[in-house]
Amino acid sequence: MTADALGRAVVGVTEEEVFTAYVGEHLPRLRRLAYLMCGDEHRADDVVQIAITRLFTHWRKARAARDLDAYVRTIVVRTFLNEHRRRWSLVRLVGRPAELPREPSAPPPDVETREVVWSALRRLPPPARAVLVLRFVADLPVAEVATTLGCSESSVKNRTAQGLLALRRLLGGAGR
């Protein structure tokens, strides 16, 4: 449900309540998108938190957008790219924190292959990683990825080809 539909469904609802309902409904999807780009749950949570804060400050403009979901996705992707550029993002902690309990789910068909691909994907530069995640995991068309990243469609196609080539090299496959 869009924010406007939420606002129209209940009379007398404040903007903050509409915002809270929208974020509550879309938070899992936003966290998944951020996690796929970051490869780290904690960084993904930070990216989503910053993105939601930015969304709140621009909520009226966001609600007026033609496609609110695309607008919010753009904020998340650009937040990820901006946070990676900051110097503090290069700091790495030693060791791993204790794993949080997860909800049980069916394991993917080939766990080893998935881990190898995710490891290679995390080694790509963030712009290439963002393009590949948006194109092949979020399954967005080239035009929507271009809008999200603020670049041309030919740039998205070029970054996709270069990212896939780099991914093949990292996975030990033959490049073109």
From TrEMBL:
Keywords attached to this Swiss-Prot or TrEMBL record, sorted alphabetically, are: DNA-binding, Sigma factor, Transcription, Transcription regulation
Quick check: keyword Transcription regulation in the entry?
Answer: yes
In the record, biological process GO terms are: DNA-templated transcription initiation
The residues forming a coiled coil are none
Q: RNA polymerase sigma factor 70 region 4 type domain: from which residue to which, for each copy?
A: 115-167
Extract the InterPro entries matched here. RNA_pol_sigma-70-like, RNA_pol_sigma-70_dom, RNA_pol_sigma-E_actinobac, RNA_pol_sigma70_r2, RNA_pol_sigma70_r4_t2, RNA_pol_sigma_r2, RNA_pol_sigma_r3/r4-like, WH-like_DNA-bd_sf
Q: Which GO terms describe its molecular function?
A: DNA binding; sigma factor activity
Which is a Pfam family this sequence falls into?
Answer: Sigma70_r2
Q: Where is the RNA polymerase sigma-70 region domain?
A: 23-88
Record's superkingdom?
Answer: Bacteria
The keyword Transcription regulation is annotated on this UniProt entry: yes
- Which NCBIfam families does this entry report, sorted A to Z? SigE-fam_strep, sigma70-ECF
Recorded family membership: Belongs to the sigma-70 factor family. ECF subfamily.
What is the recorded name of this protein?
RNA polymerase sigma-70 factor (Sigma-E family)
Lineage of the source organism? Bacteria, Bacillati, Actinomycetota, Actinomycetes, Pseudonocardiales
